[in-house]
Give the backbone structure.
Amino acid sequence: MIELRDIAADLARFRIRIFAIGILVVACFSLLVGRLVYLQVMRHEDLKTQAENNRTAVLPIVPNRGLIADRNGIVLATNYSAYTLEITPSQTVGGLDNTLNELARLIEISPKHRKNFRKLLDESKSFDTIPIRTRLSDVEVARFAAQSYRFPGVEIRARLFRIYPYHDTASHVIGYIGRITRAEKERIEDEDNVANYRGTQYIGKLGIEQSFERELHGNTGVEQIETSAGGRARRKLSSRAAVSGSKVILSIDIKLQRLIEDLYGDRRGALVAMNPQTGEILAFVSKPTFDSNLFVEGIQQGDWASLNESPDRPLLNRALRGTYPPGSTYKPFMALAALETGARTADTLINDPGYYMYGGHRFGSPENERGGVMDMHRAIVESSNAYFYSLAYEMGVESIHDFMKPLGLGQITGIDIQGEVRGVLPNREWKRNYYRNHRNPDQRKWYAGETISLGIGQGYNSFTMLQLAQATAILVNGGIQRKPRLVLATQSSDKNASITPPEVEPDTNLQYKPAHLEVIRRAMVSVAQVGTSAKLFAGAGYTSGGKTGTAQAVTIGQHEKYNAAKMEERQRDHSLYIAFAPAEKPTIVLAVIVENAGFGAASAAPIARRVFDYWIKGLHPNPEDMQAVRKGLAGAPLGIPLKATEVPWPRASAAVAGASAAIP
């Protein structure tokens, strides 16, 4: 009986265990079915996409970069075709290092090439094609072609490379391209533009190349390929062609730009030529220049040291970022301020004894040799310092500041190129902020003597040539302010080649009285007829207006006398000139500075004369006259000028000429 009871108990326990196991099996099966339902139904689309991505890869097709041309269609930045040796790591056999070593037996592959390749490899996928050598010679191409069967995954492709045909001409305007840095990649990510820059290795770094990067870059295409589980490419599934970048058409005349750069020679300075009726920049010169081609594939260390460490600072765009005291070129604007604010009339008479005294300090007036009683017209023509010293004192710094600000002096003009600086248009608030951390609180105070210096464009005044050119354009254009611009239009690369002009902001009318503007205009015309630049414009055949200026590079003590011969070259005064022509209806205004070159009529104004001759009469300096201007020894043009149309224009580099068929 006991045994039967034990058997029954064991059987009951067995049934319980079977039941429990059955429940566990059903539960596990239910979980499995639930998981399958979740994966097959709920996440069907997501998993299908992931599976497709594991099977396919999307490769970028980098677009051709757009061209840059001047207003007459002369190409200033273009592309040329050259052979590149490229490797697709996923398709190589025998290991990547072995492939590189074997390639080095056929073609020069330096440690620098390997380093750049490894860097690109780290940033790419195994099925991306990566360049190991660029710009192969015909001999190298032939040598590899004969042995190409030994190198699966290695091929030679024809690629387009950026080139600047005229090397250092207008380099600050055009800019250059260079390899994308980590910071630029982060900026591209912030702008949500990563997809369009996949595969792109170079980006605009300066000038138009940088400021119009979006238009010049174009739209990246894509190629979808099937890959194996190991990541090897099998076949192409689909593709979308890249769209080449747009052509950017500049307002500058490159032949005028080249002429001006030649007129400077080895001297430093800046010149901005502008059409006052449209705001178009005709020339945007900064000297010295540099060769933009040096940067395209990474500048060599020696070239970089030469540019970066030079005391002449060739990388500085002086037209955009160089700030200088305006000197006596400020006087026409001070005179207009006097008329508009009622501080003086044109007939107000001021005696100029050759100096101005205030608080026991003698403010000199060396530019006006004759002295005597001055009205406004004579004060501008003969450049009387005493007249404008007293005017500045009467107006006060705040009144001067408030009048000059709408003219754009010491302000951002908004030109369509990055990197512009503001300069300094001082007032009391500016000085308090500038010296806010100075230990001496008196340094933050504004003194009357500082206002007096402003009247002749000295003191804290510091403007760019772009600002002076814009202010001059406003003065001769009836008080109408137009935003300066370097780009006339962009032209798409599609079949229609549509041209898109940039958006132009509405003009601003500063509402100056025409009679007041006419007083200033007549005085500036007299400067070029009987005043400080009269000898330079003798026999011009057209009427122009202008104002010479001499600006201190270093401060001279009250009882010291300026003597250029005893000073170091970089301590000498700057030579300035602002001008417009033809006087009746100006089509060009200039602001010119030649650093450390002395009186305005000695160096800056002779350049302006040759610019006007070229623009208005189509004349080009002959070699003798060109040399005189470069040395600062020129007056009116020497000898017979050449016809600009007969002066040979420098041809583009051989690389561009030989690859014209590859240029889109």
Summary: The radius of gyration is 35 Å.
